[in-house]
Amino acid sequence: xxxxxxxxxxxxxxxxxxxxxxxxxxxxxxxxxxxxxxxxxxxxxxxxxxxxxxxxxxxxxxxxxxxxxxxxxxxxxxxxxxxxxxxxxxxxxxxxxxxxxxxxxxxxxxxxxxxxxxxxxxxxxxxxxxxxxxxxxxxxxxxxxxxxxxxxxxxxxxxxxxxxxxxxxxx
Amino acid sequence: xxxxxxxxxxxxxxxxxxxxxxxxxxxxxxxxxxxxxxxxxxxxxxxxxxxxxxxxxxxxxxxxxxxxxxxxxxxxxxxxxxxxxxxxxxxxxxxxxxxxxxxxxxxxxxxxxxxxxxxxx
Amino acid sequence: xxxxxxxxxxxxxxxxxxxxxxxxxxxxxxxxxxxxxxxxxxxxxxxxxxxxxxxxxxxxxxxxxxxxxxxxxxxxxxxxxxxxxxxxxxxxxxxxxxxxxxxxxxxxxxxxxxxxxxxxxxxxxxxxxxxxxxxxxxxxxxxxxxxxxxxxxxxxxxxxxxxxxxxxxxxxxxxxxxxxxxxxxxxxxxxxxxxxxxxxxxxxxxxxxxxxxxxxxxxxxxxxxxxxxxxxxxxxxxxxxxxxxxxxxxxxxxxxxxxxxxxxxxxxxxxxxxxxxxxxxxxxxxxxxxxxxxxxxxxxxxxxxxxxxxxxxxxxxxxxxxxxxxxxxxxxxxxxxxxxxxxxxxxxxxxxxxxxxxxxxxxxxxxxxxxxxxxxxxxxxxxxxxxxxxxxxxxxxxxxxxxxxxxxxxxxxxxxxxxxxxxxxxxxxxxxxxxxxxxxxxxxxxxxxxxxxxxxxxxxxxxxxxxxxxxxxxxxxxxxxxxxxxxxxxxxxxxxxxxxxxxxxxxxxxxxxxxxxxxxxxxxxxxxxxxxxxxxxxxxxxxxxxxxxxxxxxxxxxxxxxxxxxxxxxxxxxxxxxxxxxxxxxxxxxxxxxxxxxxxxxxxxxxxxxxxxxxxxxxxxxx
Lengths: 171, 121, 623
Hints:
The structure holds 3 protein chains of 3 kinds. By secondary structure, chain B is mainly α. Chain B contains 5 helices and no strands. Chain B has a domain at 12-89: Cytochrome C biogenesis protein (Helicase, Ruva Protein, domain 3, Orthogonal Bundle). In chain B, 59% of the residues lie in helices and 0% in strands. Chain B is elongated, with a radius of gyration of 22 Å. Chain C has 21 helices and 6 strands. In chain C, helix 8 (168-182) packs antiparallel against helix 10, helix 11 runs antiparallel to helix 14 (347-379) and helix 15 (387-410) packs antiparallel against helix 19 (479-503). Chains in contact: A-B, A-C, B-C.
């Protein structure tokens, strides 16, 4: 019996298998945002209509910021969900769409065809998207009344996901 | 461009000197090769053709042109993307471990060579 | 009906392997020749069942039998016949069946080639092989069953479009499987030596030959993977230190180390336990690599098939690790050294240093690959380990290895006198200096590139001198040595080509309006004075993907590659950004790796016939 071999071999075996076991079932593409629980990065952007929106002026009201683009396929899926929810609860919650890397004509055409119920802001060269750590679109941030990000969701939005995350923002 | 300015105020003032021309392009390439493209699979911002990566590269160029240092720029991206965005990890352990293995291995090789060689003299 | 036949064959295979494995181990313990004969029959039985099962699957694919689960998943009446044939390995279930086929052929081949030799070791070897085969049969029978019966559909979706996208995608997987699966054979031999408690001189040959063959396939497979990434992914590089790329490199590194330590073992009768450990590690790392590719735990461009077989592979990996470690701890001391090293400053001393560096590389790459997983499991924080880390860690060690390619063969076996040392170092170094100066004149300024050129020139000189030593006689008698030096020469070229291509490329990005698209080619070409070629980089948008996928176009020559890749299309401004790269020496990487493969074949092939005769004489001493 060679003790050195046994000890070194066992250490490698246990470490390797333990790490791989704990990694099982994890989605490697899911990235946790370090911004959750932190104050929302401030931004002031111009909407399609030419109006300026400064997020700091929206304190006191929960805000849902949805990053999207017309070249993103899942954005087509989630758009009706967002519009419908904005129509029903838009009085209590501020919805904001932030479009990055897109042309105004395409956005206008998209919204004309599919309806809109909240301001759509233009984020030239994705500066705001980077501040928010956006990877792929769509991504949606839920900000509470004090301006703190309480949740981030990646992927097409559904009413259930929206409601459950919004309840965190309303607390 | 005013809003852009106040976004960057959140960071400390630039600590380097503003770059331009080919130096700027070269540094942009260097710094963005240290950043991970968040939608790609392990590719760097410098290499990826994806939209987000292009935006991030643009932001890097912008900050370099304003005189931000590499450390400041990386810290800026870590703020919004987390440590995940750094392709060259800050974690000390991962840099030390291979060196420890080298030292341990060298000791093993030397002792093995001694053990297998006939005694001197 | 077809599906049921397939399921029956696989189930039969599970039983044949399990029974054969037990018979093998029992025969080893009892030293029973009848038991060995029986175990051999089970080994052939496994191969036959795998050939039949694969035949059934190919039949189902070619007849478009959509009642077979796998056919319904990847088959299509629309695709050409050759795509239908190769779609066997286009998706998870089929590729595991293909794995089983390759394993069956390997085991049968190894059993046949050792049919009248090594009777001491063979029962244990066959037992170990069939033990592994039991697991893979179980995988095909259960978690990754391609023969599920499904309601027959009129047509199927066809294989993954990536498979049809590029020729390399079709030939890369078989080479990788031939490399990965083949490591099972030396693993069986190594375990047999440990179980028997000795490793005789004659048993070295099957051990080394069985390691050399998968090493050749793995070498080519790694190159094909890099080539595919270069031709398809569009960022202009061939190696991104992606987890799956690392997974294919890890067993290659340990196998290369083992091939070297085996030489010392043969010459001096030392390092037996160590060589056996490296052989075991190579096999275990192929299983780890399979886990990395198939579990979906790692984020990679190459793992296009993610699945639920991760836990099963992890259990097998854990079992194989425990088996190997316990066996090694119990028996490694019985493989006692027969010989001695004369002096550390000798060729065998350099082999030790070589092994140190290869193991260091293996650990570094392994740590870099799984470290993010460990950190996330430990504190929930996500992190990345990417190219900058691997480059800064691997480049110095790689450069040191290149130096060893030179200094190792330059030193004599045994003991080195001062004079010999000076002669072996100084003279070839002039060639290194010359190469480095040529590089400098050609514009190389990166210090690592210059060091690589210096050591490369040095190693090339030594390799050439060693190769030509002995004259034409060598071609008949020392083919293994010649093969090794061909591999070394290839490796030297690979080192230089990697250093040059990664530090000396020029990159330009141009933004073009659609009507001026034709000027891309002309722009690239004006520097040469005449039209060289027309390149058509593309960008495809797939419905299922969030971002469009670009496909670059490459014009390769021996000196440099011209590489065009679309970076992005701006629909707003109606412009296209095109990245243009001129990279020197890329083609040499592919050529030189092929050369390494050829060297491996030269070292492997003529050896075998002689082995049979010699080993026959040495080994007819049944216990």
